[in-house]
Amino acid sequence: MFNETLSEGKLRLTPLGGLGEIGRNMLVLEYGESIVIIDAGFMFPEVDMLGIDMVIPDLSYVSERADRVEAVIITHGHLDHIGALPYLMEKVDAPIYATRLTRGLIELKMHESHIQKADIRLIEAGGTLSVAPFDFEFFHVNHSIPDGVGMAIDTPVGLLVHSGDFKFDPTPVYDRPTDLGKLAELGERGVLLFLSDSTNSETPGHTPSEQALGETISRLFNRAKGRVLLTTFASNISRIQQAMDISQEYGRRIAVVGRSMRENLGVARELGYLKVPDEALINLNQIDDIPDHRLTLLCTGSQGEPTSALVRMGQRRYHSVSIVPGDTIIISASAIPGNEELINRTLDNLFRLGADVYYDEILDVHVSGHASQEEQRLVLSLVRPEYFVPIHGEYRHLVLHGKLAERCGVAPENVLIAETGDVLEITPSRVELIKDIHDRNVFVDGRSVGDVGRDVIEERQALARNGFLVATVMVDKYTGGILGEPTIITQGFVKKAESKETLEGIKEEIEEAVEGGGTRAEMERSVRSRLQSYMSTALGRRPIVITEVKKV
Prior knowledge:
With about 550 residues, this protein is of the alpha/beta class. Helix content is about 30%, strand content about 25%. The strands form 6 sheets. The chain has an 8-stranded mixed sheet with strand order 8-7-6-4-3-1-22-23. A 6-stranded mixed sheet has the order 9-10-11-12-13-20. A 6-stranded parallel sheet has the order 16-15-17-14-18-19, with helices on both faces. Helix 5 crosses helix 11 (about 375-385) and helix 14 (about 495-515) packs antiparallel against helix 15 (about 520-540).
């Protein structure tokens, strides 16, 4: 962990997530004795992170300096920006600043985590906030959720700009365009360092407008003969509003399926960000009373989450809804890296059940909330920073965004490619990248936070690949002979057809190992070694072998 005392006149930026990865966005600003945190999100687990619910930033850096944290500022309400807040607020006592919708979603997240006393204060685009020695100016950005902001940060070393997650949609359906005028004004003032969203830096051209997406979804509704099931991120309020409006246009009643979808929509309706008449909505237990061609189901499950509504429907495990031929299913979301396998498995299941399934690879049923290359080029030309640090993206995204910044006039030596855990030290004349801080994944596994490490994940992977064998044997402590039959437990590698022969072979190996004598520990090692060798030779398998010798 980076422990050097911060020199006088230096600003330190420490990204604890979101650089070189998609998710767990978190940035620490540090000057003198003051710390401000921007965002605190989680990341979906990768495919090989067996049993893990989510991955959060390593909060030890913040925890060691908890008394210096003055504020936590949130750019928008997606879980990759707010999902780690409950864990952060267990370690720091500081106010959270967020826009109105974002505040509502944070309150929901805190309630789920049984945190009752979070101090959440309101900010808005066009507003300011002073947290000495920083002065923040917030500007509106258009994204796939309303109420997103970027920020200009006036610091003792110069002006910084943080883009937040953004795109330039000139005709957003339920939001305002990104504030280009403010970005141009900041560029005129002189920007020392620009930190900008890199998610779509591989994508040429412009990100399409939500207007075009609405037309595509409307055509699918018009074509559908039975029920329409649409899934998207539960926080994508604008997309959900479109689906609700189109449903009403075609005379369909709407049922919301899945806890997170119901809760987010409840917050958005209460705050006025989602508008739908009460008579358009029905409870799930009423769907059998509505003709299929008059019914829309808004579902969770766009990322193939194992417990989500649509995934369970595809597995015939959702008691309230069964997928049938004639259903139209629209998956209006892109795959978060690491979720591709889960999503593809869900798609196959839905096709097997006879549904008509539409997803982004075969039809444009999703529009990104992030700027593509031409929009990134435009914002760079407006902000005109002296230094540039690409953020929010996997490593290739950061590199490609950095090369684009060079083509837009930023000096190559002033484009800094940082990763999660690196440190940026900034003076009025220089931004320096220091790769000294330790970073690790912190796994949330049920109620356990950080207790499961990479070694446990590797054990789970080995168990998943090879199964396990437990052998317990009782030995006479005087004669050294085996008492009774060894107890053998196997899981995940012995087929029934071969189990009898295999178990006899296991017992013979145990007997020969015990005949060699020795201490209890020596016998256990000998039994384990012989069983591992036997399983590899006889079956070509390498299960986890656990042995216990009891001398009685």
